[in-house]
């Protein structure tokens, strides 16, 4: 390798034509010749040497004009210093006033105000602000009165006692007979005479979709219930609901309650789930594990999800479900999944118990097709 090759990784600029001993041109190599590798003292000495040689040449060539040349050099140096000061001052002022960033205010104590100010809006920028949190609170405040808690009651067999044992009655005179036994049976409450009474068997969520008392929920929430009670905000006692229609295949049910005071119930608007996009913010409201009116928030994780759920009647196939990472737990079933406008885009239905943040909701596109049939029990 010749002497020229070992400079190809340095900084600086120059180029050299290399020739062999015969004078024939072989190649042209562009290299980076670094002046930054010299020490400051060496640079100063080199500069003073060059300046001294230049002054000597001017003195020899000019003779009696050397004084004028010296004054000219001082004038040029003074002009250079003045120019440097002017340019430096302008650069400082430009940086201080942020002249080259479109007029945006400098970052400081007003950072939050700048983030939502008109300067960034004019530049086409969008940033998160406290207004988004206020919007979520407003959606919950408006929607939660229409969300109800549903409790179901079923018959529970009366527990047997020793008095029910025929052998016990035979030896200890417990056998009922004659008019005395008939009188005791007549005095029994009707639910006891049938050998059962109503007990709380489960709970879930629903919501008013019409102000005259129609409630939408899951079929599995009210399945097998002898009586359904609905807790509505603003009422001291639960209201008894009637199951108008249900569909096991779709896991949908419509209930109906009557207002004791004749007032209209608050209701939620059904939106179009087809217009939603993956990544949209969603809000779930329900009664998970008995914690009434719980709100959770997340995003729409996926659409058109098929899942299979095993229940008492076998495997239940669902299609076209919405997937969300908003927390869905037992008790959320039948509750609304809302979009950013407060519209219902789905009914919370299922959750993957072995995972976190994988919940599913029946989309409103499925619900809207059968809603009137559910109301009239003609599905």
UniProtKB/TrEMBL annotation:
Residues 10-24 have a biased composition (Polar residues). Residues 189-201 have a biased composition (Low complexity). This is S1-C subfamily serine protease. It comes from the Bacteria. Coiled coil: none annotated. Keywords: Hydrolase, Membrane, Protease, Serine protease, Transmembrane, Transmembrane helix. Residues 1-24, 169-201 are annotated as: Disordered. InterPro entries: Chloro_Bact_Ser_Proteases (IPR051201), Peptidase_S1_PA (IPR009003), Peptidase_S1C (IPR001940). The keyword Transmembrane applies.
């Amino acid at each position: 390798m010749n002497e020229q090759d070992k400079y190809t990784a340095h900084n600086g600029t120059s180029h050299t034509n290399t020739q062999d001993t015969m004078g024939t041109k072989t190649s042209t190599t562009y290299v980076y010749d670094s002046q930054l590798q010299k020490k400051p003292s060496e640079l100063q000495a080199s500069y003073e040497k060059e300046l001294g040689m230049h002054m000597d040449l001017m003195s020899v060539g000019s003779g009696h004009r050397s004084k004028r040349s010296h004054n000219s050099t001082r004038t040029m140096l003074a002009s250079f210093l003045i120019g440097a000061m002017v340019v430096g001052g302008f650069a400082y002022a430009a940086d201080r006033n942020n002249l080259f960033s479109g007029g945006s205010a400098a970052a400081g104590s007003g950072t939050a105000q700048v983030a939502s100010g008109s300067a960034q809006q004019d530049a086409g920028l969008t940033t998160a602000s406290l207004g988004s949190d206020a919007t979520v609170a407003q959606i919950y405040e408006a929607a939660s009165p229409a969300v109800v808690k549903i409790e179901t009651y079923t018959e529970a067999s009366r527990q047997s006692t020793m008095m029910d044992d025929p052998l016990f009655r035979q030896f200890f005179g417990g056998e009922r007979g004659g008019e005395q036994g008939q009188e005791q049976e007549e005095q029994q409450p009707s639910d006891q005479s049938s050998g059962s009474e109503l007990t709380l068997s489960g709970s879930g969520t629903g919501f008013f979709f019409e102000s005259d008392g129609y409630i939408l929920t899951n079929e599995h929430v009210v399945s097998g219930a002898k009586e359904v009670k609905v807790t509505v905000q603003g009422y001291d006692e639960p209201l008894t609901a009637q199951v108008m229609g249900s569909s096991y295949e779709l896991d949908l049910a419509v209930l109906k309650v009557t207002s004791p005071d004749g007032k209209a119930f608050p209701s939620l608007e059904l939106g179009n789930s087809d217009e939603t996009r993956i990544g949209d913010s969603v809000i779930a409201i329900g009664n998970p594990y008995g914690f009434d009116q719980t709100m959770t928030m997340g995003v729409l994780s996926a659409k058109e999800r098929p899942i299979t759920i095993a229940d008492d009647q076998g495997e239940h196939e669902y299609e076209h479900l919405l997937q969300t990472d908003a927390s869905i737990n037992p008790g959320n079933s039948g509750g609304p999944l809302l979009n950013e406008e407060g519209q219902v885009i789905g009914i919370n239905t299922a959750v993957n118990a072995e995972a976190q943040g994988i919940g599913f909701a029946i989309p409103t596109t499925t619900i809207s097709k059968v809603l009137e049939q559910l109301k009239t029990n003609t599905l």
